[in-house]
TrEMBL record, chain A:
Organism this protein belongs to: Stappia taiwanensis
Coiled-coil regions listed in the entry: none
Entry keywords, A to Z: FAD, Flavoprotein, Oxidoreductase
Single Gene Ontology MF annotation: FAD binding
Domain of life: Bacteria
The keyword NAD is annotated on this UniProt entry: no
Pfam families to which the protein is assigned, alphabetical: CO_deh_flav_C (PF03450), FAD_binding_5 (PF00941)
Listed name of the protein: Xanthine dehydrogenase family protein subunit M
Location of the FAD-binding PCMH-type domain: 1-177
TrEMBL record, chain B:
Entry keyword Lipoprotein: no
SUPFAM superfamilies found in the cross-reference section: 2Fe-2S ferredoxin-like, CO dehydrogenase ISP C-domain like
Keyword entries, A-Z: 2Fe-2S, Iron, Iron-sulfur, Metal-binding, Oxidoreductase
PANTHER family: OXIDOREDUCTASE WITH IRON-SULFUR SUBUNIT
Keyword Iron applies: yes
UniProt xrefs under InterPro entries: 2Fe-2S-bd, 2Fe-2S-bd_dom_sf, 2Fe-2S_ferredoxin-like_sf, 2Fe-2S_ferredoxin-type, 2Fe2S_fd_BS, Beta-grasp_dom_sf, Diverse_Oxidoreductases
Pfam families: Fer2, Fer2_2
Domain 2Fe-2S ferredoxin-type: 5-81
Taxonomy, superkingdom: Bacteria
Listed name of the protein: (2Fe-2S)-binding protein
Entry's Gene Ontology molecular function annotations: 2 iron, 2 sulfur cluster binding; metal ion binding; oxidoreductase activity
Annotated organism of origin: Stappia taiwanensis
Amino acid sequence: MKAAPFDYVRVSSLDELGELAAAYGDDAQVIAGGQSLVPAMAMRMARPKLLLDLCDLPGLADIRLTPEGLEIGAMVRYFELAASPLVAAHAPLVSAAVPLIAHEAIRSRGTLGGNLAHADPASEMPAVMLALGAVITIAGSNGARRIPAAEFFIGTYETALRPGEIITAITLPAAPVGRRGAIDEVVRRSGDYAAVGAAFAIDLEGETVAGARLAFFAVCERAVLAEKAAAALCGQRLGHVDPAPVLDALAEEITPVADLHNRAETKRHLMKVLAGRLLQRLLSGEKSTHG
Amino acid sequence: MDSLFPVTLTLNGVTATHEVSQRTTLADFLRQTVGLTATHIGCEHGVCGACTVFVDGRIARACLMFAIQAEGRDIRTLEGFAGDRRMEVLQRHFHERNALQCGFCTSGMLATAHQLLEGSPDPSREEVRESLSGNFCRCTGYHAIVDATLDAAAELNAAAVATGGEAAC
């Protein structure tokens, strides 16, 4: 279980990153926290010839409020997200998601940007980004662009990133006053990959659901938004929610794909169970469960 | 034979430069290059927790970092905790509670428990279980490890109260 030989560079600018990425092509691999990449290299599932370490790139580790919303630098590590009062105040769903990710020792090193760029279909954060309507800032030597999370995740380990580009920041737009959020997953052991997971952000106007973003992970090839299910939830009233049309729409629009441990049929069942639980938790009564 | 490159890091309080190949993990570096064998290597892909060490003051998997990434970092292994009061109390309660049999997981368990008690001096049993859930033990069945961690917390808190320490507030 040793990685194949590789060269290693701590890049100091996006231009340097771009030049090396162009020179090495598919043999170049960016490393952020390395908590998914290093095991893949140990198992020789990844054999990059060049590792481009982002740890010395300036300006990627800040969390700050901007006019567009809460901006989180790509190299912010999970434990920093969990400890951030800004994140707790402006994106509590992110704070709530961190304890579900692996274990404390992994959360010391893993980064938000690295997680999103890896695009593991069983990972929590891509779904949280979909639920919160995140905008992802991507940069390379040719400049920067911003794309919605919903257009960023393409497939398993597949994103809108082009060679030589990295995520530099994630912006979470300000939430409306009536926002409620929750995340949960079905998992055999704490810290394992989820069998099925869901992250919901529901916006109430008074006691009526005015908007909903229902994201699921570990169900198919990437994190997905259940848009028909969300439409079936809109207009329903707090304390009087009928989950049946929501769950029916969900089963219709998302076709789960089996993984190593769970059949598609199991995932379909668990997906509905989990969605029902989250609706109950968020909308059954008066108590605000902003989380 | 891989080429060797210099890496300068602070290891248990001492800053030094060593020669490593780029693909040497921090775990292999600690055991084979430096000869610090308290850090154990189990699964080599981040699952078992046996190689848990402190990187810049927080627990991390030494098998999920290449030594060359530790350039400029502060690394602390179990050897670096000699004389540390919290670690000494944890070790004694692990001994008293039979919280180890083969001992392979123990370094990682102690490192993880040490960080837990630093941030959460009076954890519930559930918190201890959650905190240690990333460290595998194949001997004890875990209960003794959880017991030992809770006993250590109780002793450290009692000492803090007796001396008017901040844990009393």
